[in-house]
Every structure is written in structure tokens, then in C-alpha cells.
Amino acid sequence: KQEVTQIPAALSVPEGENLVLNCSFTDSAIYNLQWFRQDPGKGLTSLLLIQSSQREQTSGRLNASLDKSSGRSTLYIAASQPGDSATYLCAAPSFSSGSARQLTFGSGTQLTVLP
Amino acid sequence: DTEVTQTPKHLVMGMTNKKSLKCEQHMGHRAMYWYKQKAKKPPELMFVYSYEKLSINESVPSRFSPECPNSSLLNLHLHALQPEDSALYLCASSQIRELYNEQFFGPGTRLTVL
Question: Which residue of chain A has the CA closest to B49?
Fold first, then answer.
């Protein structure tokens, strides 16, 4: 059974800092991994889907990496802004066999960027 | 268009009521999902539909009854709920392809059971 862990659980940084969020997973037989952002009381916004064949995936100030062999993914946020304050969740599939993908979520990292 | 819509946004119901949550997507996705999320917790999978057929039921109590009338629409029928069922209910959809199956979520329905 896939288990996903995220550290740290909470992070507070001043505006402008670069930061790294960590995600680890136990079952490395995955095709991809997805990072989400969630604002309080809202739904999840997909940030990046990184394939196992990719080392990195970039979207604006966000950069995600995936290392299947070590069971780790990182989300790098450059030049953080107060608007980046949210909970960041990573999700790894429990299986991917050509049918719908069952995601297992980490508990999230709650990020606060101070102006 | 990468939008998943959910109605209603908020729902308050008594334990004897029957209500339904609705989810819709027009991205041509053939997988649709219901998740339940409690405060400060990650989403927990409830049901998965693949090609309009129920493929995963994560041992959800029968007071929750999903329905997928067509490839764009997903419903969750609620009956005789308990106060502990109060949560944010999220719908998601994705393609059914191993590599390109990014899940897109709706804004959720905030359910309160009195």
C-alpha cells in the first residue's frame, strides 16, 4: 500500500526566499506524481504532474523533481510571495494499470510567506 | 477548459434528510472521483468511476450512494448521514491514460450534518 509523507508540516518564510518542500513515498512503482495547492476551504489546484521519465518539471517559479529510486520528490518555489501562502500536497498513485489512478496524498505542508 | 464544477457550494442537512451533490466536467475525462476531506487532513478517496462504471469503492458506508449518469456528470446521493460526515466533499476527473492522467479537482461542497 502506498504511503506518502511530507516534511515539514508547516513552514514560515519571509517574502523573497527560495524554499523546498519534500515528499517521500514508499511504493516506487509509479508512472508519475502530482503536486497540488490548496487554499483554506477551497478545492485542490493542480500545480505539476511529473512523469517518472522526467527528472524535473517546471511551471513558472515552481520546479518539481522526482527520484523514483529513492522514493522522493521535491517542490522548489523560487522568490516566494505572500500569495504563495497555502497548503501544498503531493500525491502518488497506488497503481497505474491503464485504468483510473488511485492517489494517495501526503498530509501537506502549510506554507506561510510573510510580507 | 480545465474546470470541474460542483454544486451546491454549501449544504446543511439533518440526519433524516436526503440530498445530492453534483459534479460536472467537460474535458472529455472518462475517470471521475469523489473524495472526502476533514479539516487539516488530506483528501480521502471514496469512489472512482471509470467509463461510467464504479471501479473503486473504498468501503464507504451505504448512506453515501454514487451515480454516474453520463461521462460528464457525477452525483453523490446522501441519506441518513451522521454529524461526523460533515466535511468538504471534492470531485475530481482525469483521463484514463497511464502517463497523462493528471487529476483536476472541483471547488468542493462544504457539507454540515446537524
Answer: A100
Please list every residue in chain B whose beta carbon sits closer than 8 Å to the beta carbon of residue A100: 31, 33, 48-50, 55-56, 94, 96, 101
B46 Rama class: left (phi>0) / alpha (psi -120 to 50) / beta: alpha
Q: What are the pLDDT digits (tens) for B29-88? A: 999 999 999 999 999 999 999 999 998 888 899 999 999 999 999 999 999 999 999 999
Q: Which of B46, B44, B50 is nearest to B31 (CA)?
A: B50
The grid coordinates of residue B109 equal: 461542497
**Residues shown for chain B:** 114
Q: Are strands A10-14 and A109-114 parallel, antiparallel or unpaired?
A: parallel
What is the spatial distance between Cα A66 and Cα A24, in angstroms, rounded to a whole number?
10
Distance CA B103, CA B64 (A): 22
